[in-house]
Amino acid sequence: MISIIDYDAGNIMSVEKAIRHLGEELVITSDPDRILSSDKVILPGVGAFGDAMDKIRKAGLDKVIYDVVDKKIPFIGICLGLQLLFESSQEAPGVPGLGLLEGKILRIPEKDGIKIPHMGWNSLEYRKDSRLFRNLPEEPYVYFVHSYYLEAKHEEDVAATSYYSTLIHAAVEHENIYACQFHPEKSGTVGLQILDNFIHL
């Protein structure tokens, strides 16, 4: 069973649709017992960093997420769900993230001809030993919607990068923690393969 953590995030339904398309059973829940009894856990997210962290903390879901990680249950954050795993974001100064991984979330730099938010398809360069990107062609295209990006502290945590105005750490893998800045659920067959890889870890 796969749990999608419900904290009123914006992209839950599209993630649910993609997982069901892959033939998997899932539950959308904020119940700690159901989350902790799952085989895999997904933290979706669209919206503002500070608002999302406030909702997560008020619901006590931060403690549940720490328990998921401690129990070594495979866990993936998507879009804002990636950003929340890190220490801080320029979008919400003074609001701590979950701090599961070291790094910071920065605003995409303004440049001529660059539109922010970044909305569209970009190619990835990924590590050859990445578990999320198994069975994919080189430099696959995936769909992004974001104004902020990850700068991870540890290069070994970075599973994939992309370039849009600056180098973006587009995916991470660290023990049982996985995350994508892009939306695999909106990235066609490539995205479905990434989700299927996660499901079958």
Topology readout:
Layout: E1 2-5, H1 12-21, E2 26-29, H2 32-36, E3 40-43, H3 49-58, H4 61-70, E4 75-78, H5 80-83, E5 88-89, E6 103-107, E7 118-123, E8 125-126, E9 141-146, E10 148-152, E11 158-164, E12 166-174, E13 177-180, H6 188-199
Parallel strand pairs: 1-2, 1-3, 3-4, 4-13, 5-6
Antiparallel strand pairs: 6-10, 7-9, 8-11, 11-12, 12-13
Structure overview:
This protein is of the alpha/beta class and 201 residues long. It has a single domain (2-199), classed as Rossmann fold, CATH 3.40.50. Helices cover 25% and strands 31% of the residues. The chain has six helices and 13 strands. It has helices spanning 12-21, 32-36, 49-58, 61-70, 80-83, 188-199, and strands at 2-5, 26-29, 40-43, 75-78, 88-89, 103-107, 118-123, 125-126, 141-146, 148-152, 158-164, 166-174, 177-180. A hairpin with a 2-residue loop joins strand 12 (166-174) and strand 13. The model has no long low-confidence stretch (mean pLDDT 96).
Short structural summary:
The protein is α/β, with parallel strands linked by helices and 201 residues long. It has helices at 12-21, 32-36, 49-58, 61-70, 80-83, 188-199, and strands at 2-5, 26-29, 40-43, 75-78, 88-89, 103-107, 118-123, 125-126, 141-146, 148-152, 158-164, 166-174, 177-180. It has an eight-stranded mixed beta sheet with strand order 2-1-3-4-13-12-11-8, sandwiched between helices.
